[in-house]
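Predict structure. Chain length: 174.
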Amino acid sequence: MICPFCGTVSKDDHPKFCASCGKTIPAASATSGVLAPGQEETFFEGRPAAIGSLGALLVVILTAGLGAIYFWLRSLGTRYRITSQRIIVETGMFSKRVDQLDLYRIVDFVIERSFGQRIMGTGTIIVDSMDKTTPVTRIEGIRANVMGLYERTRAAAEVEKQRRNVRPMDIERP
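Prediction complete.
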């Protein structure tokens, strides 16, 4: 069972409370863990943290808060949406670029949580994919349960691969 609030995977099939966030899990969520084909569930939607690491916080302190304006404006230029079928990264403040990555194309995930990010409660998910335009997608500065989001996205990627009958192959290059 996956907590609908924080994304933590529970070993119990029908928990009443989430062991991670402590919220009450609705009975409907516990019984309906599988979506109908074609139905899309949003796992995460938001912007990166303006001050996502200890280094950024140090810059803000040393510049008497002026660095916070820079980091805040930079975070306004990025928006992430992670669903059960795709990852959408929208960048730019005036000119927009929208990059979409279907989950069935994902080959590998990497989680980065530096010491500074762990202190600030953020993290980065790096996705390697078979996408031709963007083979590596970085989802940086997420202010959520990064491991829970990773687990949900990884499980959804496997479901999408099975649903589309995609079987990735490892081919060694000389």
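Summary: The chain has two domains: 1-33, 40-163.
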